[in-house]
Structure to design on (363 residues):
C-alpha cells in the first residue's frame, strides 16, 4: 500500500513538473485539436469552423494588462480575418482559483461587454494550455489547415508594440496571414511571447 | 494671519516637493540605463525588472529595499526598473512608489518593442518578470526568477 502511494505521489509530481515545463509548440508542429466550452456554453473545436483555411488561436485572459492592451487588436483580427478564412479562437489559460477574475462567469461577462465576435474558451485543468505550451497572455498560435492536418505556422506575439502607440509597429500576425493567403510560408515564424505568466495553482 | 498662512503653505510646499523629489520616477531607455551604470559612482549595480501588476515582483521589492539599506556603506546601487506601460506612470507607478515609500531609484522603461529590448538586457531572458541583472565592474549576471531575501543576498555576495 505504501508503495502504491509513493508511486502515485511520484507520478503526480512528475505530472506537475511536466505541466510547468510544457514545451511550446513551434512552426511545423501539429496543432492539437480541442473541445472546450465557449462562453455561450457550446463546445468549440477546430471543426466548428468548417470553411476555415486556418485559425488564429490566442491564449488570453481577463486580467493581464497586456491581454487588456491587446484586446481590441484581437477583436480587430477576427473582424478582418474571419471572413478571409482565419477566425480567432481565444482560450483562457489561467486557473480560475489562482486568478479569481478569470472564472468562467467573469469570462462570460467580458465577452458580452466587449461583444466578442469569436469564441472565448475555458480550459479546465489547463490541459490544452499545456498541449500548446502556452506561457503568457496573450500568446498567439497561427494554424493552417492542410492536407496533413492542422499545422502551426507562427508562435509568439501579435505585434512588437504591446502598449500600442507606435505607428510603425510590425504586425507579425497580420504578416503571417498575408503570407499564408498568398500560398507562401511566413517569413517570421516565431517571436517572443510578451505578457503575463499563465496563472497556476500554487505548488503544494 | 495672512503671513502665517503663507509661511505654512510654503513649508507644506517645501515638504511635499522634497518628498516628491525622493520618490520621482523617471523614464529610462536601455541606452540611458547603460549610461547610468557606466557613469555611476558605484561598483555594483542590482537592476530589478518589475511591474505594479506583477504580484511576485511586488512581493520581492522589500528585499531589494532591504539589500540597499543594509549595504549602505558599500558601493551598491539598486535600480528598480518598471515595465509598466508608459501611460500608467502617473496613474499607477508613481502612486505605488509613494505608497510603498520606496527608497531605491525607480525608473519606468522607455522602450516600445520588447522583441528588441529583452535581448539588449540579456539574450537568455524570456521576458518574464521578476528578473534581476547584477553588474559588478565587468561581470554581468542575469537571473530570471523571484528571490527570497536570503537568495538575493547570496547572489549579491557571490559577485
Amino acid at each position: 500500500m505504501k508503495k502504491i502511494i509513493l508511486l502515485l505521489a511520484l507520478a503526480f509530481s512528475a505530472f506537475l513538473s511536466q505541466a510547468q515545463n510544457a514545451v511550446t509548440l513551434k512552426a511545423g508542429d501539429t496543432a492539437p485539436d480541442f473541445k472546450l466550452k465557449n462562453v455561450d456554453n457550446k463546445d468549440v473545436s477546430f471543426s466548428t469552423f468548417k470553411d476555415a483555411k486556418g485559425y488564429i488561436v490566442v491564449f488570453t485572459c481577463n486580467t493581464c494588462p497586456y491581454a487588456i492592451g491587446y484586446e481590441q487588436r484581437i477583436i480587430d483580427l477576427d473582424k478582418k480575418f474571419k471572413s478571409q478564412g482565419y477566425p480567432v479562437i481565444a482560450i483562457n489559460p489561467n486557473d480560475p482559483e489562482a486568478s479569481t477574475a478569470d472564472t468562467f462567469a467573469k469570462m462570460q461577462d467580458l465577452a458580452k461587454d466587449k461583444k466578442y465576435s469569436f469564441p472565448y474558451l475555458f480550459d479546465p485543468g489547463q490541459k490544452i494550455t499545456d498541449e500548446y505550451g502556452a506561457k503568457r497572455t496573450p500568446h498567439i498560435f497561427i494554424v493552417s489547415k492542410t492536407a496533413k492536418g492542422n499545422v502551426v505556422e507562427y508562435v509568439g506575439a501579435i505585434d512588437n508594440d504591446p502598449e500600442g502607440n507606435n505607428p510603425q509597429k510590425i504586425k507579425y500576425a497580420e504578416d503571417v496571414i498575408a503570407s499564408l493567403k498568398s500560398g507562401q510560408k511566413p517569413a517570421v515564424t516565431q517571436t517572443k511571447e510578451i505578457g503575463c505568466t499563465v496563472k497556476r495553482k500554487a505548488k503544494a | 494671519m495672512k503671513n502665517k498662512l503663507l509661511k505654512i503653505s510654503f513649508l507644506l510646499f517645501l515638504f511635499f516637493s522634497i518628498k516628491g523629489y525622493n520618490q520621482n520616477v523617471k523614464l529610462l531607455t536601455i541606452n540611458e540605463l547603460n549610461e547610468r551604470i557606466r557613469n555611476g559612482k558605484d561598483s555594483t549595480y542590482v537592476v530589478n525588472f518589475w511591474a505594479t501588476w506583477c504580484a511576485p515582483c511586488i512581493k520581492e521589492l522589500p528585499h531589494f529595499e532591504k539589500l540597499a539599506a543594509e549595504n549602505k556603506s558599500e558601493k551598491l546601487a539598486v535600480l528598480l526598473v518598471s515595465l509598466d506601460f508608459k501611460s500608467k506612470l502617473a496613474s499607477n507607478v508613481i502612486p505605488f512608489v509613494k505608497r510603498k515609500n520606496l527608497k531605491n531609484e525607480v525608473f519606468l522603461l522607455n522602450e516600445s518593442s520588447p522583441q528588441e529590448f529583452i535581448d539588449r538586457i540579456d539574450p537568455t531572458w524570456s521576458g518574464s518578470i521578476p528578473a534581476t541583472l547584477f553588474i559588478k565592474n565587468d561581470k554581468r549576471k542575469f537571473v530570471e526568477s523571484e528571490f527570497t531575501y536570503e537568495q538575493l543576498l547570496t547572489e549579491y555576495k557571490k559577485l
Notes: Chain A touches chain B at residues 64-65, 69, 135-136, 157, 160-163, 165-166, 169-170, 191-194, 196-197 (CB under 8 Å). The longest strand of chain A covers residues 139-146. Confidence is low (pLDDT under 50) at residues 13-18 of chain A.
